[in-house]
Amino acid sequence: MDDASLFRTAADTLAGEGWCVLNGLLTAAQTRALADECAALYAARRLAPARVGATHMATELRGDRTQWFDPAAPSGPQQAFLTRIDALRRALNRELMLGLVESEAHYAVYAPGARYARHLDRLRDDDARVLSAVFYLNEGWQEADGGALRLYRGDGTHRDILPHAGTLLLFLSARFEHEVLPATRDRLSIPCWMRQRSPDRAV
Ligand SMILES: O=C(O)CCC(=O)C(=O)O
Ligand SMILES: [Fe+2]
């Protein structure tokens, strides 16, 4: 599918459902380069325990380790990711008038057994995050490995999305509570947020 149709399909599904899964944002080689870099940083202990709120560390609630992408100095694999996310952001702005001005992204690794309890991605007192986008990096993931992202829908049902390499999950940050279920193997991903201009922040 060419980019225009890929992005239009995503926009249509987002407009209707508020969430969608998009495959084909990056090539398999680009995805593998991100997975290799994330795994190498993790092995070198360069990822730090994630925090909930500004200072509070809460491994019970959230057991991943993360490293933010530096927009001023992205690595080659990160640059490829950010270029494609930016193309998607612009397309969604055109199709849905979302007014998304920037993206922020980090690597995340959940070791076996780690989870992220049910939550909303909107930070308290900050409505800048409009769209959550999670890109997954795990080759050969099986259902028995666990680690699904459980997305809670307004009607009381939920959907489980497995973290297969190359899958991008998109959902409206303010609308969908979600959680990361524990896995039996390391689970690598790039959570990313597309932001609107926020009155409280200089963008
Ligand atoms: O890795 C995932 O599937 C989602 C992570 C998440 O919910 C978050 O970082 O806010
Ligand atoms: Fe989240």
Description of the structure:
- With 203 residues, this protein is an alpha+beta fold.
- The protein has one domain: Jelly Rolls.
- The protein has three helices and eleven strands.
- The chain has helices at residues 3-17, 28-43, 76-96; strands at 19-23, 48-49, 65-68, 100-110, 116-119, 129-136, 149-152, 158-161, 167-172, 178-180, 187-196.
- The strands form two sheets. A seven-stranded antiparallel β-sheet has the order 1-9-6-11-4-3-2.
- A hairpin with a 5-residue loop joins strand 7 (149-152) and strand 8.
- Helix 2 (28-43) packs across helix 3.
- The radius of gyration is 16 Å and the shape is globular.
- The model has no long low-confidence stretch (mean pLDDT 93).
- The structure holds 2-oxoglutaric acid and fe (ii) ion.
Features:
binds fe (ii) ion; binds 2-oxoglutaric acid; 30% strand; Jelly Rolls; alpha+beta; globular; 203 residues; 4-stranded antiparallel β-sheet; 7-stranded antiparallel β-sheet
Number of domains in the coordinates? 1
Distance between the termini: 34 Å
| Beta-strand percent range | 25-35%
Largest sheet: 7 strands, antiparallel
CATH overall fold name:
Jelly Rolls
Broad CATH class: Mainly Beta
Total strands: the figure is: 11
CATH architecture type = Sandwich
Element-by-element helix/strand order: HEHEEHEEEEEEEE
Using the alpha-carbon principal axes, give the shape. globular
- Rounded radius of gyration (Å): 16 Å
SS-based structural class?
alpha+beta
The side-by-side strand order for the widest beta sheet comes to: 1-9-6-11-4-3-2
Number of helices: 3
Bound heterogens, unique: 2-oxoglutaric acid, fe (ii) ion
Low-confidence stretches: none
Oligomeric category: single chain
Helix proportion? 25-40%
CATH H level, superfamily name: q2cbj1_9rhob like domain
Mean pLDDT: 93
Pfam family, one: 2OG-FeII_Oxy_3
Cofactor: L-ascorbate
Domain Fe2OG dioxygenase: 84-196
Keywords: Dioxygenase, Iron, Metal-binding, Oxidoreductase, Vitamin C
